[in-house]
Amino acid sequence: MTGQHDTVLRSSGLRVTKPRLAVLDAVHAHPHADTAAVLAGVRLALPNVSHQAVYDCLSALTEAGLLRRIQPAGSVARYELRVGDNHHHVVCRTCGEVADVDCSVGAAPCLTPTTDHGFVIDEAEVVYWGTCPTCSSRTAPLTQTAPIMKKESR
Amino acid sequence: MTGQHDTVLRSSGLRVTKPRLAVLDAVHAHPHADTAAVLAGVRLALPNVSHQAVYDCLSALTEAGLLRRIQPAGSVARYELRVGDNHHHVVCRTCGEVADVDCSVGAAPCLTPTTDHGFVIDEAEVVYWGTCPTCSSRTAPLTQTAPIMKKESR
DNA sequence: ATCCATACTTGACTCGTTCAAGAGACGTGC
DNA sequence: GCACGTCTCTTGAACGAGTCAAGTATGGAT
Hints:
- Two copies of one chain form a homodimer.
- Chain A has five helices and six strands; from the N terminus they run ααβααβββββα.
- In chain A, the strands form two sheets. Chain A has a three-stranded antiparallel β-sheet with strand order 1-3-2. A three-stranded mixed β-sheet of chain A has the order 5-4-6.
- The first copy, chain A, has two domains: 2-70, Winged helix-like DNA-binding domain superfamily/Winged helix DNA-binding domain (Arc Repressor Mutant, subunit A, Orthogonal Bundle), CATH 1.10.10.10; 84-137, 2-Layer Sandwich (Dna Ligase, domain 1).
- By secondary structure, chain A is an alpha+beta fold.
- In chain A, α1 (2-11) packs across α2 (18-29).
- The first copy, chain A, is globular, with a radius of gyration of 18 Å.
- At the A-B interface, β2, β4 and β6 of A face α4, β2, β4 and β6 of B.
- β6 (120-131) of chain A pairs antiparallel with β6 (120-131) of chain B, so a sheet runs across the interface.
- Chain A binds a DNA duplex through α4.
């Protein structure tokens, strides 16, 4: 796996360094991990990396297209390895959990706005907001009827 | 207009205060304004309001459903008055400019994911990323051919 | 007019992220 | 295999949006 990442780095014209390999490993192990989680994951392998190194790696890898950075409203930045397949995300309003959702259209931009105000559009990002299974069962466990959605701010 | 906002506040069960009216006015005058811009707008009418008051107003009004808060990745929070019509946004990658885009579907959630991982979904938020007319003409003004999209990170 | 809950003021503080300067390591060319 | 130049990492400080907390003021019900 690290061998894989090694090749991937090289073919993107990036230097192969331990922190970068560890960052790729960490994101691979925990998709949608935020920077703190990535840092923690990296430090399992390299206990002394600086947080700055992780920030640098994450932005270098993101710029090279090896990572994708997502940031739902109210959340810190999160990263994932799955790039180039134009998929989307479901986000839990309660706990912030993120899950992948395949794009039913396929190619980016997967949607076309009716009025574009003269913008040149290259991507349509879709975020589904809702409640994850865990939080659903925790907030409405007593009734068998359809759960009432508690939308706190909308 | 302030008369309008007065009524709107009352019918939402919120106290009518000068800062709140001024916040509504400011957002009305500058749709998609960030907190700093709202604060500046409010201070035109009320030079001594605290930034905290503006934060409090914005969150109270958002919670009451009078304002909608949007936060594209990498941006600070922005606010708009247009609520309840399930519209979306186009965001310029270069300057951060935001414009409204009507939802072609109509009702929320306007899209349904193919796999929902057990999430109870109540909203689909769509953000179109691209380049606004001003930034387009600034980066590719010399050719008459189709502009090359410079996607800096993806 | 009085009173209480809510809203605002003031000022400090948190946390994710970025900046800057110098030490260290990757990899190319010899 | 070795030296060199450039990119990357370490260290430590700083920034800015947003939040917390305690006390004062004000809206609106009685």
